[in-house]
Amino acid sequence: MAERVSLTLSLALPSHSSPTKMAAFGSAAASSRFIPSATRATVSLSSSSYLSIPSSSSSSSFSSLKCLRSSALISHLFLNQKRAGIRVSSRGYSAVSAPKSFASYPDQLKSAREDIKELLKTTFSHPILIRLGWHDAGTYNKNIEDWPQRGGANGSLRYEIELKHAANAGLVNALKLLQPIKDKYSGVTYADLFQLASATAVEEAGGPKIPMKYGRVDVSGPEQCPEEGRLPAAGPPSPADHLREVFYRMGLSDKEIVALSGAHTLGRSRPERSGWGKPETKYTKDGPGAPGGQSWTVKWLKFDNSYFKDIKEKRDEDLLVLPTDAVLFEDPSFKVYAEKYAEDQEAFFKDYAEAHAKLSNLGAKFDPLEGITIDDISPKAEKFVAAKYSSGKKELSESMKQKIRAEYQAVGGSPDKPLQSNYFLNIMIVIAVLAILTSLFGN
């Protein structure tokens, strides 16, 4: 059903007519108007988000969104950072004493993830949140070593100067959706929030679990945003060469290009905003969310491998096929993977999860360096079994097991963690050597 969601924020958010949903790494701008608000603004969003390609014939106008700057962390565990807040004015956002480097708290990340899940249930914004994470990370240039000049997942997309890039038209709507969550969990950086939302959206749409890590550091100002032109176009003259030029610059392979393209299984495009697709199809006329547009797949809010199947068959005129989609089955190298994913969803899920995780880390600066994991993935510890340290078939008595256990723990062992070597065998050897030496000296 075509529901709409009204979010009232106690912040000076610029209003927008409706969210623009675009294809991952779209290339051109779509028009969007903003009306400056006072200290409060009501953001009216359709209950669905889409992937679409922005139009090159229009440009975005940003009159009041200055910059969505990151608030800092309070001290926690091994982190010694000072707290900073977001000051709200009638013109937009400004940051107050943001630190140069800080990490997100695991507990806040977990809570933010749950809030994102609830947000997805009511807004169906999976596609645009995925695209937000992709576009923040997709500016990475492997040939530039310095951070943040190299681009990548650093939260720079929250600034007006980068939001105005043609490929990012409409992503301000994703920021509006996530800003209340950012305000609630000030310890979570924008860079982490964008990637958390993107991975969560994939998983909640039925896709694979993404092996994510967090702790990304935010850039501190708009002067650190990358120049325009680092993201792919949707309909370049030579699609295969263009995709390779852009994705190779990020350090990604042909397999990863094809796997990531599979995210077009979600979303739809609107011709009035992008110049691509039909105004309406039998699959989009009833929403959810604002009706209309053309999707790549029949079930455009379900993450599966139907994108590859539908692109390969090209039988349904109501489904969208862009030049960068069609080339996956035309280029010999791309075709190997596209054919594989069309036949094997499990293989697609595996490769997509790896590629998405890799993309989300591109150019990121982590604090701590090893990153933060919020999923319990450690293997179960091996429990102590005293019988392992006996010989022969005779079972040890309970009293002997307790004695061995006590000795085992006394030298650093644990009931749930075995020693690196067989301590008890070493004891037996030592006793035997001592007995031999005693016998020799006694004689």
TrEMBL record:
Domain Plant heme peroxidase family profile, first and last residues per copy: 188-412
E.C. number: 1.11.1.11
Cofactor: heme b
UniProt GO MF annotations: heme binding; L-ascorbate peroxidase activity; metal ion binding
Chief localization: plastid
Biased composition (Basic and acidic residues): 269-285
Catalysed reactions listed for this entry: L-ascorbate + H2O2 = L-dehydroascorbate + 2 H2O
Keyword Transit peptide carried by entry: yes
Membrane-spanning parts: 423-442
Compartments reported by the entry: Plastid, Chloroplast
Keyword set, alphabetical order: Calcium, Chloroplast, Heme, Hydrogen peroxide, Iron, Membrane, Metal-binding, Oxidoreductase, Peroxidase, Plastid, Potassium, Transit peptide, Transmembrane, Transmembrane helix
Family: Belongs to the peroxidase family. Ascorbate peroxidase subfamily.
Job description of the protein: Plays a key role in hydrogen peroxide removal.
Name of the protein described by the UniProt record: L-ascorbate peroxidase
